[in-house]
């Protein structure tokens, strides 16, 4: 019954079936067998469609890969530059070399080198100096100028700045009366250094020893008598 | 030897290829099936170059997996099954690509142009254009109906062979063929009016 029904349907679609049967036959290309045998002889068993698909995937992902690589390289190198700028320890001395060289020259040329006490390393070599050697205390140029020749220049000086003391580097913030005396200034302008008083214990010990000495001398005199 | 081989049936040739690894037997089978497979795959995919690649892949798979063929099946159904599966995979890939592609559907565009041509009687009379229109209409039929319609009405295989190739029951094959034909007839009704 069903078969008959389908056979009837074939009659219903006769025009369509006729059109389909009359379609021209599509043949394989002439070099089909040759290409196939070449592939087999060369052992190229990856299917053409697979190769085409993978090559298309490559084209899709290639730009994305390129962008990712560029971003990684950019981040890496920019980070490296940032580190170089931020950390003087990783610096090869190139940034401070000029400054330190200049400062060293100034220092050498100054008539009085009052900063000789401050621990100081030589200017780092530009080429290959160890990191520790690149660490140094930058001298206070203003204080250096004052110490070099504070009052001679115009027979005048900035007393406020001198008294503030924060411009003065080295062995203390205040200019003492002793220093002022050495420079020919009135002592009253400066803080006087007070001599440290001896403690009571020391005084008592001294008194005791003197008493003992006196007692011993008296004893000696009595014996002679 | 070559003359004798050419007279052998498909099943005997593949047996020869399986047992003695006779390359001539393989070449004869390739010669016999390259054109029918090309026609089948082209009617199913609508792309000549892609069809050629798919048939090449089919033949390579046949060469590499010759031992997977069992003698109780017909060679033609076995090779059609390989080709049909490869063609379906290719269509799935293309559909995926279309989903992610920003381009418009080229097939849709060309079919619309063909529909305009249908109205013009002088062009419809031209067999070449007519066959092109039929091919375009065939590509618009659902995949599940198209392959069975092509196998039955273009390749002229029996229902049993189609059932074996597709792995469907005979009833399903017949109903799918019927639905496919119906869809195709609706698409081609303008031609018959003319």
Written overview of the protein:
The complex is a heterodimer of chains A (225) and B (194). Chain A is mostly helical and 225 residues long. Chain A has 9 helices and no strands. The longest helix of chain A has 39 residues, at 48-86. Chain B folds into 2 domains: 1-110, RNA polymerase sigma factor, region 2, helix turn helix motif (Rna Polymerase Sigma Factor, Chain: A); 117-194, Orthogonal Bundle (Arc Repressor Mutant, subunit A), CATH 1.10.10. The longest helix of chain B is centred in the middle third of the chain and has 26 residues, at 75-100. The termini of chain B are far apart. Chains A and B meet through α1, α2, α3 and α4 of A and α3, α4, α5, α8 and α9 of B.
From the structure above, extract its key features:
heterodimer; A: 225 residues; mainly alpha; B: 194 residues; Rna Polymerase Sigma Factor, Chain: A; Arc Repressor Mutant, subunit A; 11 helices
* Oligomer type: heterodimer
- Total number of beta strands of chain A: 0
Briefly note the structural class of the backbone of chain B.
mainly alpha
Number of helices of chain B: 11
Class from secondary-structure proportions of chain A: mainly alpha
Query: Which chain pair shows the most residues in contact?
Result: A-B, 31 and 49 residues
Structure summary, number of beta strands of chain B: 0
Low-pLDDT parts of chain A are 114-124, 167-172
Distance between the termini of chain A: 170 Å
Q: Averaged pLDDT of chain A, please? A: 67
Biggest pleated sheet of chain B: none
Number of helices of chain A: 9
Gyration radius of chain B (Cα, Å) is 19 Å
Percent helix of chain B: over 70%
Which word captures the global form of chain B? globular
SSE topology string of chain B: HHHHHHHHHHH
Uncertain residue segments of chain B: 105-119
Give the CATH superfamily of the largest domain in chain B. Answer: RNA polymerase sigma factor, region 2, helix turn helix motif
If you compute it from the alpha carbons, what radius of gyration of chain A comes out, rounded to the nearest whole angstrom? 50 Å
**Global mean pLDDT of chain B:** 84
């Amino acid at each position: 019954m069903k078969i008959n029904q389908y056979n009837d349907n074939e009659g219903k679609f006769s025009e369509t079936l006729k059109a389909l049967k009359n379609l021209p036959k599509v043949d394989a290309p002439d070099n089909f067998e040759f290409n196939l045998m070449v592939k087999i002889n060369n052992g190229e068993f990856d299917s053409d469609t697979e190769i085409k698909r993978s090559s298309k995937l490559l084209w899709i992902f290639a730009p994305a890969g390129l962008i990712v690589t560029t971003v990684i390289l950019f981040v890496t190198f920019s980070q490296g530059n940032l580190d170089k700028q931020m950390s003087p320890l990783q610096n090869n001395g190139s940034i401070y070399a000029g400054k330190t060289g200049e400062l060293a020259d100034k220092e050498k040329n100054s008539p009085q080198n009052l900063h000789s006490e401050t621990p100081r390393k030589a200017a780092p070599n530009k080429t290959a100096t160890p990191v520790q050697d690149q660490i140094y205390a930058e001298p206070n140029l203003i204080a250096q100028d004052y110490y070099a020749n504070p009052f001679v220049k115009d027979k005048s000086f900035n007393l406020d700045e001198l008294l503030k003391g924060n411009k003065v580097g080295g062995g203390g913030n205040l200019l003492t009366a002793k220093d002022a005396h050495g420079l020919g200034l009135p002592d009253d302008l400066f803080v006087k250094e007070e001599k440290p008083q001896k403690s009571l214990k020391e005084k008592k010990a001294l008194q005791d020893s003197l008493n003992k000495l006196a007692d011993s001398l008296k004893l000696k005199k009595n014996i002679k008598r | 030897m070559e003359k004798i081989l050419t007279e052998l049936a498909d099943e005997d040739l593949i047996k020869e290829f399986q047992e003695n690894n006779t390359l001539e037997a393989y070449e004869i089978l390739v010669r016999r099936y390259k054109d029918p497979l090309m026609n089948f795959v082209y009617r199913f995919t609508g792309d000549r170059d892609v069809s050629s690649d798919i048939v090449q892949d089919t033949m390579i798979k046949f060469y590499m997996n010759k031992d997977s063929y069992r003698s109780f099946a017909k060679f033609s159904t076995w090779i059609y099954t390989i080709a049909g599966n490869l063609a379906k995979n290719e269509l799935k890939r293309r559909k995926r690509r279309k989903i992610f592609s920003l381009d418009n559907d080229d097939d849709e565009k060309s079919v619309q142009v063909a529909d305009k041509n249908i109205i013009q009687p002088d062009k419809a009379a031209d067999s070449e254009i007519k066959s092109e229109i039929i091919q375009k209409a065939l590509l618009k039929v659902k995949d599940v109906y198209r392959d069975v319609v092509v196998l039955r009405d273009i390749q002229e295989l029996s229902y049993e062979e189609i059932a074996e190739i597709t792995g469907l029951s005979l009833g399903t094959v017949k109903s799918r063929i019927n639905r496919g034909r119906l869809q195709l007839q609706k698409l081609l009704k303008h031609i018959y009016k003319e």
